[in-house]
Write a structure and sequence with these properties.
By secondary structure, this protein is mostly beta strands. 12% of the residues lie in helices and 35% in strands. The chain contains 1 helix and 6 strands, in the order H-E-E-E-E-E-E. Strands 2-1-3-5 form a 4-stranded mixed beta sheet, with no helix packed on it. A two-stranded antiparallel ribbon has the order 4-6. Strand 1 and strand 2 (39-44) form a beta hairpin. The protein is globular, with a radius of gyration of 17 Å.
Length: 126
């Protein structure tokens, strides 16, 4: 019984250490050479590849996304982030959310449910 209490306490302390992680992203065209040939690609905050996201289990990720593409709708699809009860935040444009129109803004927010190092997101053009 004492062991269960220690596990419960450790879990509670881990959740108590969880934090809100705020990111502010401007999705725009940038020049990059993903395959050795420079061309316009979709970047975040003027950079490509897109930024790494550093979070831990229990954190709440809050990302303000502005679509500065000018001529394309977009959405952010989160590879590896499990969307329990937040499917509308999954970013599959036309499936679980409407695309973000050029010049528009969307705020994604969900709790991190699994422990991974997230380095892959997909910017979708619709």
């Amino acid at each position: 019984m004492a062991r269960f209490g220690l596990i419960a306490l450790a879990s509670w302390l881990g959740l108590a250490a969880a934090k809100d992680v705020y990111l502010d992203w401007n999705v725009t065209w940038v020049n990059a050479s993903p395959d050795g040939y420079e061309r316009p690609v979709i970047g975040i905050n003027g950079e490509w590849p897109c930024p790494q996201i550093d979070v831990v289990v229990g954190d709440r990720l809050i990302v303000d996304v502005y679509n500065g593409l000018g001529n394309e709708s977009t959405g952010i699809h989160w590879h590896g982030f499990h969307q329990y009860a937040t499917g509308v935040m999954d970013g599959a444009s036309g499936v679980t959310q409407c695309p973000i129109a050029p010049g528009s803004h969307m705020q994604y927010h969900f709790q991190v449910r699994a422990s991974y190092l997230y380095t892959e997101i997909t910017l979708m053009m619709i």
